[in-house]
Amino acid sequence: MHKFIKQAKSLIGTRLKSQSAEHDHLILNEAVSFDKHVIFIAVPKTGTTTVRNQLRPKGKPLIPNPHLNIMQVRDTLYTYLLRSSLEQNTRYPTEDVATDAEVRARTQHLFDTFFKFSAVRNPWARAVSLFFRREGIQVKDSMSFETFCEHHLYASDTCKHPTLHKNQFDWMSDENGDFALDYVYKVEDFAKAIREIEERTEGRLKLQYKESNANPNSRSGSYRDLYSDRTRKLIADRFYKDIDFFKFTF
């Protein structure tokens, strides 16, 4: 194992051992695993609960919102390692305490070497899922689907923690707008993705096909039936980037 990962795990472990018994262990986020060396970018309404339930470390998250974008994870990783390195000096003269430059170097190394992946969903099916959702902002009883499509401007619309991402792609791009993940799969291809993820992580991450948080009242499985020519075009125009980059069709 690379020395930077060893140093980071030692630093984190020391921090966790020093916490008082009444406090939970601190984790970065439920979608980041230091043990498996993976970062999962959880785009809402793309089957993320299934993956997060299997990936979630035990402890109290520094950032409770599981739907962070890739740049937020990168920046939070530095904050997490910095916090883990504090209150570690137990001797004089000071020895073996990480400098800020070392913390930043560890942050960059972990971010570069962790397997970063995500899932995406057909924008037309996803819009229907957002309309019928049971959590977050529930709108199906207060407006028609056509009205919903007229006002559906962001991929995070109806989310409890809106991030104002225009497209799903925006969760996965860096500050230059370039795709920043190692792997992304379509929700309907999850069974195939499980095998590829295991191979790409050299067996570290072995996901199972488990349906979680399914909404029996959602009509996303037959989403085409809800669309008129007008609403179909509204979604196509609004989420063109996702449709083009991930090659979705109605």
Describe what you observe in this structure.
The chain is of the alpha/beta class and 250 residues long. It folds into 2 domains: 114 residues, no CATH class; 126 residues, no CATH class. It has 9 helices and 6 strands; from the N terminus they run αβββαβααβααβααα. The protein has a 4-stranded mixed sheet, with helices on both faces. The radius of gyration is 20 Å and the shape is elongated. The termini are far apart. 35% of the residues are buried.
Keywords:
single chain, 250 residues, alpha/beta, 2 domains, 4-stranded mixed beta sheet, two-stranded parallel ribbon, 9 helices, 8% strand
Helix-strand layout with pairing:
Blueprint: H1 3-18, E1 26-27, E2 32-33, E3 38-41, H2 48-55, E4 60-61, H3 70-85, H4 100-113, E5 115-120, H5 123-131, H6 145-151, E6 183-186, H7 190-200, H8 229-238, H9 240-245
Parallel strand pairs: 1-4, 3-5, 5-6
Antiparallel strand pairs: 2-3
Helix pairs in contact: 1-4, 3-4
Question: Average pLDDT value?
Answer: 87
How many DSSP E strands? Answer: 6
Give the domain tally: 2
How far do the termini sit from each other? 45 Å
Summary?
This protein has 250 residues and is α/β, with parallel strands linked by helices. It has nine helices and six strands.
